Amino acid sequence: MYRIVEKKTLSETVKLMKIEAPYIARNAKAGQFVMLRIDEKGERIPLTIADSDRENGLVTIIFMEIGKTTKELGTLKVGDNILNFVGPLGKPSEIERYGRVACIGGGVGIAPLYPIIKALKQVGNHVTSILGARNKSLLILEEEINNWSDELYIATDDGSKGLKGFVSDVLQKLIDEGKTFDIAWVVGPVIMMKVVANLTRKYNIKTVVSLNPIMVDGTGMCGSCRVSVGGKTMFACVDGPEFDGHLVDYDNLMQRNNRFIEEERESCKLAGVL
């Protein structure tokens, strides 16, 4: 069992939890994730490791209450236990000194971007972070990311904070102003990653995206997380979750991610967590 030692509300539907998991905390690297199951009747879901405290054996997860399991997870309190908490899984981010790095996150995708930003800055990169959300109340980890960024830009759909528009608009503006980037990391909604990858392709900026498709076991056995990358079938849980952003078939990924929307709604209804 894995005890919840801290819980915070970051926005209306986004929660942060710190979990006692010493082994994972000691071994986790930027870009990796865990598979958790709340109880014996629960389903397994993947959540990226947002931070880890090796000294105190704590792992931070951040999640949006969007489906049955995440809504039930959001009802747990400090002192409650999670039955299964397995990790670290997936290949870690390839952290090295690239030079000028653009780190672009949207919505709850900002959470998995945070440890990547920290790791990139710690090895000496110049980090430009661009964060996007529908409105300022849904923006998360702004202060934490600002502490590890050389520059921070904000975009909101409604203009309530930063530029009115999208993260791709901010990136285009920076490029138009003469800023150059050696590599970009992009994490967020699939459509956002697609738009940004199309933009970076025009300027020959190497781009890494972190994918979060449907997963069941996290070991590559079930095949639920398969994605098409460069015309080849890859498994996000073992081959990723990070891939070349210019090779991902985003349309196929969006189609696969929408397979169980009706079933998820019915599950939420039956569980009384709508």
Structure in words:
By secondary structure, this protein is an alpha/beta fold. The protein folds into three domains: 2-89, Beta Barrel (Elongation Factor Tu (Ef-tu), domain 3), CATH 2.40.30.10; 93-204, Nucleotide-binding domain of ferredoxin-NADP reductase (FNR) module (Rossmann fold), CATH 3.40.50; 211-263, Ribbon (Dihydroorotate dehydrogenase B (pyrk subunit), domain 3), CATH 2.10.240. It is 29% helix and 32% strand. It contains nine helices and 16 strands. The two termini are 27 Å apart. The protein has helices at residues 22-27, 68-75, 110-122, 142-147, 167-176, 190-202, 236-239, 250-257, 261-271, and strands at 2-9, 14-20, 33-37, 45-53, 58-64, 81-82, 84-89, 100-106, 126-133, 151-156, 163-164, 183-187, 206-210, 226-229, 232-235, 242-244. A hairpin with a 7-residue loop joins strand 3 and strand 4 (45-53). Helix 6 (190-202) runs antiparallel to helix 8 (250-257). The longest helix is centred in the middle third of the chain and has 13 residues, at 110-122. The strands form three sheets. A seven-stranded antiparallel β-sheet has the order 6-1-2-5-4-3-7. The protein is globular, with a radius of gyration of 18 Å.
